[in-house]
Design goal:
There is one protein chain. With 245 residues, the chain is an alpha/beta fold. The chain has a single domain, classed as P-loop containing nucleotide triphosphate hydrolases (Rossmann fold, 3-Layer(aba) Sandwich). It has a five-stranded parallel sheet with strand order 2-3-1-4-5, with helices on both faces. Helix 1 runs parallel beside helix 10 and helix 2 crosses helix 10. The longest helix has 25 residues. The relative contact order is 0.22.
Length: 245
């Protein structure tokens, strides 16, 4: 069982930041090469999910991870409050429409897990509904893996309570970050322990495992995310298609 309180939100003390950032740059370039292979081969699809507390750096993770990828082969979607039409369907209806085709990388900046997180924190669904949704999520993700050869990466961006306060305060203090400020983020912060409880539920009940990424130091976040993606994509042994005969 994963207990988030037992996992550091900072990198190991013996790591050298300059060295890690150099490794990250090489990995970012390598991911760009692998994306080209993925797009050309058209045999695999990739779904990348970023979840985390407010100010855990989801936008930054997307930006830095895929900086050397071609935009033609990647799409990013953030799931907001469901529309009236979306609410008239099952909770996965809007998600299924966004899954990647073969050759594509689809990034979810927040995802279907919001439907067993914020809804549970605020009591909009009960434990029984959350359990059934978790069962549906596992079946949905396994369907994607089995039926369309979709490789799913799930990253929980592990932020400390103290660092979240600093990040939220910067959105007030620094003019270039004013656009990020949302007073509601401070209200949601009051539910920190409850969010952590339900994140642990989602992480521990998932059939496809999560990568817990310490994010108090953003340079370490970037390294862990891109390293995880590169190692998996390299293991696929993708090849450029030959000329048609």
């Amino acid at each position: 069982m994963i207990k988030l309180s037992e996992i550091p939100t900072t990198p190991p003390e013996d790591l050298d930041r300059d060295e890690i950032e150099k490794k990250t740059e090489k990995l970012q370039e390598r991911l760009g090469d692998l994306q080209k292979l993925l797009y050309a081969e058209q045999e695999h699809a990739v779904l990348v999910i970023f979840q985390g507390m407010d100010a855990s750096g989801k936008d930054g993770a997307v930006k830095h991870t895929f900086k050397d990828c071609h935009p033609h082969g990647i799409s990013v979607h953030s799931f907001k409050k469901p529309t009236e039409e979306e609410l008239s369907h099952d909770f996965l209806w809007r998600v299924h429409q966004r899954v990647p085709a073969k050759g594509m990388i689809q990034v979810f900046n927040r995802s279907h897990y919001e439907d067993i997180l914020i809804q549970r924190v605020h009591g909009w669904i009960d434990d029984e509904r959350a359990y059934r949704r978790m069962t549906a999520i596992n079946a949905f993700e396994e369907l994607l893996e089995f039926d369309s050869n979709t490789h799913i990466f799930k990253f929980y961006l592990h932020l400390s309570y103290e660092q979240q306060r600093e990040e939220l305060q910067e959105r007030i203090d620094e003019p270039e970050k004013h656009w990020k400020h949302n007073p509601n983020d401070w209200k949601e912060r009051e539910h920190w322990d409850t969010y952590r409880k339900y994140y642990e539920y989602a992480i521990n009940e998932s059939h496809i495992p999560w990568t817990i990424v310490p994010v108090d130091k953003r340079w370490y976040r970037n390294y862990i995310v891109v390293k995880t993606l590169v190692e998996k994509l390299e293991s696929l042994n993708m090849q450029y298609p030959p000329l048609p005969i």
